[in-house]
Amino acid sequence: MTKLNELVNWFADKNKVMIALSGGVDSALVAYAAFQKLGDSAIAVTADYKTLSEEELQTAKQVCSEIGIRQLLLDYDELENEEFVKNDSNRCFHCRVELGDHLLKLAKEHTVDVIVDGTNLDDLGDYRPGIEALRQYGIKSPLVETNISKSQIRDIAKSVGLSVHDRPSNSCLASRIPWGQRVTAEKLARIEFGETVVKQITKIKQVRVRDLNGAAKIEVEKNDIPLFDNVVLDKITEKLKMIGFTSVEIDPEGYKPGKINVIAD
Question: How many structural domains are present in the chain?
Answer without folding.
Answer: 2
